[in-house]
Write a structure and sequence with these properties.
The protein has 193 residues and is an alpha+beta fold. It has 2 domains: 62 residues; 127 residues, Sortase, Chain: A. The chain has 3 helices and 8 strands, in the order αααββββββββ. It has an 8-stranded mixed sheet. β5 and β6 form a beta hairpin. α1 crosses α3. The longest helix is centred in the N-terminal third of the chain and has 25 residues. The N and C termini lie far apart (54 Å). The N terminus is likely disordered.
């Protein structure tokens, strides 16, 4: 309940500050603006305002899906969100890393991280089953990008990942905690077919 009250106050303050800025910047008749503002506030309940904000935020994240990831061998089909989306978070989804390129970037590298383990967010729990020759598919801008796995290796879990790939080819890097040793990362490299 307290959270809802805080949101209502935030919405009111936001609307009020927008009203003031609009009024000052456009030199519009104050009485007319106040009348319109009061009509808008009076015509919608506080719950309607909060619900509209929540729905707009949810719709924004739905629109921030930039591609889908498919790994047929592992029955993985995930949405990948834009780098600036709140849904692009390894604790919610497979994460598109900030240093990642997009699939259509020449000689670029799409870098995706996900959890292994047993929880519902362990999207990469079976990543260790991929072998050289398996396929990973990204659908991006209505085009399919198919990658063949060319390498897998273990890297120390020390806060960064060493990516060993051919810089003259488009590639994908998938990584997760090594299911056999949580002190290491499992890194999978694929090249565009």
């Amino acid at each position: 309940m307290f959270y809802s009250v805080k949101r209502i106050i935030f919405v009111f303050c936001t609307l009020w500050s927008s009203f003031v800025v609009y009024n000052l910047s456009n030199f519009v008749n104050n009485e007319e603006l106040i009348e319109n503002f009061e009509k808008n506030i009076n015509n919608s309940s506080s719950n309607d305002v909060v619900n509209e904000l929540v729905n707009n935020n949810q719709n924004m994240d739905k629109e921030n899906v930039v591609m889908t990831l498919s790994i047929p061998k592992l029955n993985i089909n995930n949405k990948i969100y834009s780098k600036d989306s709140t849904e692009n978070n390894i604790d919610k989804n497979v994460q598109l890393m900030s240093m990642s390129d997009m699939p259509d970037f020449i000689n670029g590298n799409v870098i995706l991280g996900g959890h292994s383990g047993t929880g519902k967010l362990a999207y990469f729990k079976r990543l260790n089953e991929l072998v050289v020759g398996d396929f990973v598919v990204l659908n991006y801008k209505e085009k399919e990008f198919v990658y063949r796995i060319v390498n897998s290796y273990i890297d120390d879990k020390d806060g960064h990942i060493v990516i060993s790939r051919n810089l003259d080819k488009n590639s994908i890097t998938l990584f997760t905690c090594n299911p056999n040793d949580k002190n290491n990362y499992l890194v999978i490299i694929g090249e565009l077919v």
